[in-house]
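2024-03-11 09:14:02 INFO receiving multi-entity request
2024-03-11 09:14:02 INFO entity count = two
2024-03-11 09:14:03 INFO echoing inputs for audit
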Amino acid sequence: MMKRLESIHKSTSRIIEIQGQMTERCLELLLLPEDSSCLLLDIGCGSGLSGTVLEENGHMWIGMDISSSMLDVAVERDTEGGLVLADMGEGVPFRAGCFDGAVSVSAIQWLFNADKKTHNPVKRLNKFFTTLYSSLSRSARAVFQFYPENEKQLELLTTQAMKAGFYGGVVIDYPNSAKAKKFFLVLMTGGVGPLPQALGTEEPDSLQVKYAKREATKGIRGKPIKNSKDWILEKKERRRKQGKITKPDTKYTGRKRSGRF
Amino acid sequence: MKLITHNMLTSKCLKGVVTGYPLAINATDIKVKEVDFNPEFISRVIPKLDWEVLWVAADSIGHSDGLPRSLENKYDENEEFLKKAHKVLLEVEVEEGHLTCPESGRQFPISKGIPNMLLNEAEVQ
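2024-03-11 09:21:47 INFO inference complete, emitting structure
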């Protein structure tokens, strides 16, 4: 009996430790200004495990969760963040531009579950990302640690996020370890930026930059952005198919011209 | 519910509501819980607040004593003021009561310090 209790205790401590590490990693990826005290949104804050890490890093947080029993535990644990009982699929119920950043640890995959017959996951994802976008201040980021079931879920998440106006991509830490592999959806509000390097990999061009790159060259509808090199190449190909005289593609095609042009 | 949470909270997820801010507070039970004072955070968060809303909220629950109705110059250098702001923002908690949406009149209960913003199906946009 004691041995069993010990092993349960150990696995609970381990879970708490992992949640803590994932929160620290989310904070890292948030790229907040150094040594500053920020107001952060914790989405799916649960019993406040991630919130405690945010506090320890000197930030103030407001958390939302759909489970009142988990929030009651957060109160018991005397966490210092603000707590709100809310369903993220109904929207993020805060004023425009109030948060310096948002984190979420192991929570957003719940948006894929249609708990009620009337739940439409796409609609909920859209509602969530649109309202989240508006609640963030300019150049704030949102980082979500989550466990995608499959490629399709990942696609759906990133598509809905981009539709809401976010830029970003997925960082995959330890991509080659089944046990340690972790997914972080990193969303930015203020312009395209490079994704941070993933942990446990030396390949600079691997999975983690996949979605960011795609979004940098294509607009929301998946078409190349007008006047980009991709757009120029596609347009020339269309002209050739129409039988129009088109100059051949060379290394100069779509090259950046100097300001003097 | 802390007043910093109240200052950010809206009912805009309700169908037909445009801004849903500020929510009116009706408190039946209030507690004061000690929170570590971080003057840097308080100075940084003040520009994000709707100060008038904060003052009115604090006043509506009887905690506006000594809190200026409008922000003074160089408030970030006034430790007395920052401490008062800290108390009102982070230490005063509405334990029981309800919030009311200014546009729809819909009430949101506050129980054990936590505001319940869950909507029913007909209310979702």
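2024-03-11 09:21:48 INFO post-check: The mean pLDDT of chain A is 84.
2024-03-11 09:21:48 INFO post-check: Residues 2-30 of chain A form the longest helix (29 residues).
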